[in-house]
Amino acid sequence: GIAALVSGLTIAANTSLETLRLSRNPFTIAGIRSLSTLIQSERSCLKLLDLGSIRNGDNEEVAVILANALTNNTSLMNLGLGYDISEARGVTFSKLLCDTSSINNIYSSNHTLEVIGDIEYDRETTNDEVLKYLVLNRNTRCLNPIDRGLVPMCKILIHHPDLTDMKPFYKWKLKVLPLMVKWFQKAGACQDYFEESVDVFQRRELSAMYKFIRGVPMLAADGYWSQQLKQVHVKKRNFEEVEKKQLLAILEKKRKLEEEEMQVLDRLSG
Questions:
Q1: Would the pTM of this model clear 0.85, i.e. be above it?
Q2: pLDDT digits (tens, 9 = 90+) for 112-169
Q3: How many CB atoms lie within 10 A of CB 23?
Q4: Are strands 19-21 and 78-80 parallel, antiparallel or unpaired?
Q5: CA proximity to 116, closest of 107, 108, 105, 125
Q6: How far is CA 65 from the centre of its chain?
Q7: Taking the CB of residue 170, how many other CB atoms lie within 10 A of it?
Q8: Is residue 179 classed as helix, strand or coil in its secondary structure?
Q9: Are 150 and 187 contacting, i.e. CB atoms less than 8 angstroms apart?
Q10: Which of 31, 35, 175, 217 counts the highest number of beta carbons within 10 A?
């Protein structure tokens, strides 16, 4: 049933379907996998997907399948699963909404999904960690409905208040500073979410710039010693080449002496 439905929607290259309610249908893992291909499609413009009740034994695997499918989805805003998210499934959806392992992974997280829960009875998930990011996606979109780029900025500032790890930026050296200023200017809208004063938010920016500038001399020092190491390696290679030539010369001289020795011995024996 579900596989046939998904196949039909995929073949039709449906680009106008925004709401899909399947809450009264029984599901299997195979059906959920088929449905995930529709969610992953670049042509999908689904905004609401209501799956309703799913067998409890399959909930954990369903969460993983759906989370993987939603990683790059930028249209789905409402996901109805008909159950409260447990701690284990909460970890899966929390990572989908905000992968805190690095700044880049936060940027690559899902910033579109706003509701997970029982859509039919208008009940959101009770998992606090997941709900926090869903509300953030929803509220930040309200701050700037046109530019979704503000959502990851707010998430980054939650987990990296002053862009803690500056090493990825060192390769651009001082060119980063004006970009950093522009980034914080744009992220200034997050003050409404954090309920911070302008002064407190500016301290984040100054702290980030200070950390970067403080790290630049170390970058210069690393560059100097890297250059010194390269020079040592060049000298070592030159020495090895000279040593090799000298060894070949010695072996050639030894060979000639052995030939002369054989000639002398031949004459003596004659």
A1: no
A2: 999 888 777 777 777 888 888 998 898 877 766 656 778 898 898 888 887 767 777 7
A3: 15
A4: unpaired
A5: 125
A6: 18
A7: 16
A8: helix
A9: yes
A10: 35
